[in-house]
Amino acid sequence: MQLDAKIPAGPIEKKWDTRSFENKLVNPANRRKYHVLVVGSGLAGGAAAASLGELGYRVSVFCYQDSTRRAHSIAAQGGINAAKNYMGDGDSIHRLFYDTVKGGDYRAREANVYRLAQVSNAIIDQCVAQGVPFARDYGGLLDNRSFGGAQVSRTFYARGQTGQQLLLGAYSALMRQVGAGTVKQYTRTEMLDLIVIDGRARGIVTRDMVTGQVQCVLADAVVLATGGYGNVFFLSTNAMGCNATAIFRAWKRGAGFANPCFTQIHPTCIPVAGDYQSKLTLMSESLRNDGRIWVPKAVGDKRAPGSIPEEERDYYLERRYPAFGNLVPRDVASRAAKQVCDEQRGVGEFGLGVYLDFEDSIKRLGRKIIEERYGNLFQMYEKITGEDPYTVPMRIFPAVHYTMGGLWVDYNLESTIPGLFVAGEANFSDHGANRLGASALMQGLADGYYVIPPSIGHYLGTVRSLPAADETHPACRDAERAVTERIGQLLSIQGRRTVDDFHKALGRIMWDKCGMGRTEAGLTQALEEIPRLRADFWKDVRVPGSAPSLNQSLEKAGRVADFLEHGELMVRDALERRESCGGHFREESQTEEGEALRDDVNFAHAAVWEWKGEGQSPALHKEELAFEHCLPSQRSYK
Amino acid sequence: MKLTLKIWRQASREAKGRIESLETPEISSHMSFLEMLDVVNESLERAGKEPVAFDHDCREGICGTCSLMINGQAHGPWAGTTACQLHMREFKDGDVIVIEPWRARAFPVLRDLIVDRSAFDRVLQAGGYVSVNTSSPQDANAMPIRRADAEAAMDAAACIGCGACVASCKNASAMLFVSAKVSQYAHLPQGQPERMRRVRAMVEAMDAEGFGSCTNLYECEAACPKEIKITNIALMNRDWRRSLCEEEL
Ligand SMILES: Cc1cc2nc3c(=O)[nH]c(=O)nc-3n(C[C@H](O)[C@H](O)[C@H](O)COP(=O)(O)OP(=O)(O)OC[C@H]3O[C@@H](n4cnc5c(N)ncnc54)[C@H](O)[C@@H]3O)c2cc1C
Ligand code: FES
Hints:
The complex is a heterodimer of chains A (638) and B (249). Chain A has 638 residues and is α+β, with helices and mostly antiparallel strands. Chain A has 17 helices and 19 strands. Chain A has helices spanning 15-22, 28-31, 43-55, 93-103, 110-130, 162-180, 245-252, 316-320, 330-342, 359-365, 367-385, 440-463, 474-493, 499-514, 520-540, 552-576, 600-603; strands spanning 35-39, 58-62, 80-81, 155-156, 183-186, 189-197, 200-208, 214-218, 221-224, 257-258, 263-269, 292-296, 313-314, 354-357, 394-403, 406-407, 420-422, 605-610, 619-624. In chain A, the strands form 5 sheets. In chain A, strands 5-2-1-9-17 form a 5-stranded parallel β-sheet. A 5-stranded antiparallel β-sheet of chain A has the order 11-15-14-12-13. The longest helix of chain A has 25 residues, at 552-576. Chain A is globular, with a radius of gyration of 24 Å. Chain B has a 5-stranded mixed β-sheet with strand order 2-1-5-3-4. A two-stranded antiparallel ribbon of chain B has the order 6-7. Chain B has 249 residues and is α+β, with helices and mostly antiparallel strands. Chain B has 2 domains: 4-111, Beta-grasp domain (Ubiquitin-like (UB roll)); 118-248, Orthogonal Bundle (Fumarate Reductase Iron-sulfur Protein, Chain B, domain 2). Chain B contains 8 helices and 7 strands; from the N terminus they run ββαβββββααααααα. In chain B, helix 5 runs antiparallel to helix 6. Classes of the chains: A alpha+beta (638), B alpha+beta (249). At the A-B interface, helix 3, helix 5, helix 6, helix 11 and helix 12 of A face helix 1, helix 2 and helix 3 of B. The structure holds flavin-adenine dinucleotide and FE2/S2 (inorganic) cluster. Flavin-adenine dinucleotide is lined by residues 39-45, 62-65, 71-73, 75-80, 162-163, 190-191, 225-228, 237-238, 243, 245-246, 282, 401-402, 424-426, 438-441, 444 of chain A.
């Protein structure tokens, strides 16, 4: 497997301009001849499909929901970063670049991150032009808030519904193109395999989730923008349908998978309440601007929070990290919460929680301002827990939230399979070992609006015309047959355990052994447990219903079958990376104060895994990362 | 607690549906409504039966996928709340809960509680956008927007497109949904150039999809989980009448 990152030559500030100039172009009149598939309609896919449609390509966009407007980007609450420096607090493209590389604990590719910071400003301009109603101040100008891992205010927001508003912006652009006939949308349609012909990505196999029809869709290039795979843990902040299937199938067709073990555990989620729980709800990190995090100082203190006096509270983030306080990056905040709970100082019924307290802010700013800033979040919290956060401190606990790992891509977002591009959370590109808050929305839109369109143009301008292929091509027949057979197999087992049963069991292994703290022994054990669970699944799962119909159990079964393999790859990667960095905490590798200890000599690389066939161990390749502008140092938020 | 569910079962779009009665296993009052359905479905699957199909995704009240008529109310009894955010502490042991899909000519049932809402997408394709291509437009702060206008636009833009307004309306009217989009852009300077063309095209598309007309019943506003205001409909009606007089197309 060749890993050529194709980074343009020249100084970092000029690389993107250089690439834009080097890129081949497709004549406007010729664009209609090319068909591009975009799988996923979130910020990355929605923006890419709309922009490609505007340029005049023939585009087909796919999503598993009933409308492209419902991709999980819709759930992002807090905001989107940009280096506008509207607040005049010293922000710049270089600072956003630096913060992102440092926040990612020096495991991202500098050139990509620099470009991300560069295009961040155009994103805000573009969204405002579309009519996205960002928050404004009384002078009518855009307002900003701060997020973890930054000492400037650079986060643009639309109440607590930033993802919704950005996605509806991209969706409106997409609807305009659908109306104009350049984009065709296929909703309730799942991608179940990738079609590779003569070494190039040429199409996908889909299943119509209403009729059950399996078919091949062919094209000249394929973009995967299918989001993250946090649901491998069963419980996460992701939507119920989020899955690894599309990128995992592409992996099995030859695309490299980079850093699968890099998972973000978000510090502010509502704690688990019982074993029937189906998902975890995020409370936006923006709450850490005004909320103070604490636990009782004494072990086993079970008093109600209101009756614990000030001097008996431990504001542990403020104590340990005076410079950043409650706004340390997510990985640091999550680990600190785990530590205090491990010390038996956690709160709530199961002792797995810490307080996020607004009492001081309400006193300082008044309830009205807090309500304006966080009203809908407080309301959501109250609906779920039945407690009123204006009077009782919120209880929060870390939860799986985001996956930094994903398909390996070069500077042009092209995977190791020519013609297969990957955008948004589905790729591994910009966040290294830890993503900073409000940077995923930025990356999704940067990829979709600004990077994918010229990269696709360059690819098509280079290959010019691909040999004609239709559904009768052996590669299509084989892929389609494999998909149909697998569906048949899932339905025919008729065992004793439900799909959720297996999914929960996998989630427990992943959370215990490949979650917030990872050890050699635990990971080694997981490498035995997961294959055993997978074998049981293929012997004993029960999937009711039939193939040619709307069958939600069957959809779930297919996703869980892939998670059962993908989880193993994550564990393997975590085992191989014998250092701590960002969200990947190997307990063997920590400083005396318990902070993550990187090993830059041996691990300053992206670990890229290659599928070697059924029953074979995957092969590990490395893309060495060079840091010329952000010199790696022990991250310090003190 | 244990409950009796009376649930709409329908095998496919073409099949005839009926209400089926189901006894739930033990339910905790901490569960969300959808988690209660998960538990019911698990027990159906274990018994070798087909689970109840229902639409859901984010389970936090923002994607607009969940769509259940619960005891005759769209999204159930809690005001300003989607079905996925409704919690079982609302119910007590022995309650009977009737669960049905959205009912409207424009929303055909696909299976059990799942309907086809693609009509909404098509209405937006007719004009629910600002015609701007991806490029580097002017600086975002070059055009200050009155805070009150931005907030009013945001109030309307909060619509999640779930279809509760249509389901709760006797006429199956989509006026609240359509007017929320019209009104978002009407409050913003970016929306002005196409304002008249947009309202005309969207109202036309809405009628073509077979949604009913508004007879001021206000059920939509009461059912809306995002509390979108009926005043948007008044604005849309005003703009629509104006658009008939103005030849700016
Ligand atoms: C609760 C929550 C809050 C967040 N808040 C923030 C925030 O404040 N700021 C921030 O920057 N980031 C935030 N994030 C992260 C951010 O929202 C996501 O990383 C980002 O939106 C992902 O966008 P995407 O386009 O890559 O994927 P998604 O939006 O997840 O879209 C995936 C698309 O792929 C489709 N798809 C998936 N699998 C298949 C398949 N097999 N076949 C066909 N289609 C498929 C789906 O239908 C969907 O259309 C948050 C995430 C969560 C979960
Ligand atoms: S499932 Fe997303 S709003 Fe209910």
